[in-house]
Amino acid sequence: MSVVFKTVAHKNLQNLEAPAKHYAMVEPTGTTDIDGLAKIISDSSTASRADVYLVLIGLVDAISQELEDGRSVHLGKLGSLSLSISSDGADTATEVTAFSIKKARLIFRPGPEIRNLLKKLKFIKKS
């Protein structure tokens, strides 16, 4: 299967007089939710869909708790999850407080199998 892409035009915001440039952008062909993943996994194993769903929901809860406790979560072949924050700059370390933090982000670093998948992807342009 190939990944479908479309083209989108973006203006140069630093030079509005310049002509727009065209870039490739992935065109999703659908979505898969946690129920769909549970069905796919149960279809290829001896576990029931309900059992797989139970484990996936438990995984979400466990990951959330570990991240909330400030830990990175390593999921083997899947990859790892960790938190990152951005803050306002200050002249001294003392001036940096929790109020300096502007936002938190979740960082996903794919494992080796998923990274290798990215190198093998084939693309097809949407007509």
Topology readout:
Blueprint: E1 3-10, E2 21-26, H1 34-43, H2 49-68, E3 73-74, E4 79-87, E5 101-110, H3 112-120, E6 123-125
Parallel strand pairs: 1-6
Antiparallel strand pairs: 1-2, 3-4, 4-5
Helix pairs in contact: 1-2
Kindly report how far apart the N and C termini lie.
16 Å
Q: Tell me the fraction of residues in β-strands, as a range.
A: 25-35%
Rg, rounded, reads 21 Å
Number of strands: 6
Helix residue percentage: 25-40%
Low-confidence stretches: none
The whole-number mean of residue pLDDT values reads 94
Q: How many separate helices?
A: 3
Q: Helix and strand string, N-terminal first?
A: EEHHEEEHE
Coarse morphology: flat
Question: Strand order across the biggest sheet?
Answer: 2-1-6
What is this structure, in a nutshell?
The protein is of the alpha+beta class and 127 residues long. 31% of the residues lie in helices and 30% in strands. The chain has a domain at 32-70.
